[in-house]
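hey
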């Protein structure tokens, strides 16, 4: 299978990556089913990258129904070591204005029943997740943003809601009182699974609205989200290109690449062979398989 060094997950409004050359479209099969769409492999700034449209081209998959495990496992099979994610978010604080970009460093989970682990079926694993975003990767993305005319905010908490409906006013006010910064529907599961896959993960949260709490701004609508995403698409693409260029040939100095080293509790002899095979791309290096 052809390999890529960096994965890019494009969210609402970012269904393709400009500037790719030597493009190939590939269908990746995983033990967790099919990813959201075929991967677009190409060269960007001299680096092989794998692009995936999170909701599929044409925006056909609800946040709740996203094949998170298949998406991240496919990235692992492709050899990806770092994932740059882009997604639309609402702002829960005055200082994060529409068209700003936030590079969150924390997540808060308000989803219900989504599968966000590769483990189970006889193998138990518990990753350390106190710092859910790769700080090294987040810093590179934030630095890349300085070359644009968009305001970049480094740090903040992304509240991941279930959706697909947007917040009620009561919910929006509650999340603000908790100190949450932005609100979206997808990134928490990606971050957890990327950590289990020992892939660095960081997201660009593209602010499109003030959710529904702000007395001087209309409550969020799909039309509003798309309008602000279209205004920011060029900036997002430029930040990704610059980040990829700055990552070229740079070794990982973070701990993401060894996240499973002490995470598995199940004794080797008690692990079901079929589960070992299923998780081979993740656990094989620790089990000698």
């Amino acid at each position: 299978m052809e390999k890529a060094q960096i994965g890019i997950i494009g969210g609402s409004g970012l269904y393709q990556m400009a500037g790719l050359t030597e493009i190939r479209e590939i269908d990746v099969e995983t033990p967790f089913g099919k990813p959201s769409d075929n991967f677009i492999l190409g060269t960007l700034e001299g680096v092989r990258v794998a692009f995936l449209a999170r909701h599929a081209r044409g925006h056909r998959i609800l946040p709740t129904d996203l094949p998170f495990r298949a998406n991240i496992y496919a990235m692992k099979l492709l050899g990806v070591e770092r994932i740059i994610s882009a997604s639309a978010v609402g702002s829960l604080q005055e200082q994060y204005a529409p068209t700003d970009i936030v590079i969150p460093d924390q997540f808060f989970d308000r989803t219900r029943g989504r599968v966000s682990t590769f483990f189970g079926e006889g193998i138990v694993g518990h990753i350390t997740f106190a710092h859910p975003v790769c700080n090294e990767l987040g810093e590179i993305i934030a630095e890349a943003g300085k070359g644009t005319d968009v305001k970049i905010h480094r740090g903040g908490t992304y509240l991941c809601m279930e959706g697909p409906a947007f917040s009620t006013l009561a919910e929006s006010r509650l999340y603000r009182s908790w100190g949450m910064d932005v609100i979206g529907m997808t990134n928490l599961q990606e971050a957890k699974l990327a950590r289990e896959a020992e892939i660095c993960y960081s997201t660009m949260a593209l602010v499109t609205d003030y959710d529904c709490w702000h007395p001087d701004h209309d409550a969020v609508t799909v039309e509003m989200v798309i309008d602000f995403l279209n205004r920011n698409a060029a900036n997002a693409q430029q930040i990704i290109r610059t980040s990829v260029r700055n990552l070229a040939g740079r070794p990982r100095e973070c701990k993401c690449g060894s996240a499973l080293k002490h995470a598995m509790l199940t004794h080797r002899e008690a692990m079901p062979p079929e589960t070992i095979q299923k998780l081979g791309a993740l656990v094989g290096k620790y089990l000698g398989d």
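The chain has a mean pLDDT of 94. DSSP finds seven helices and eleven strands in the chain.
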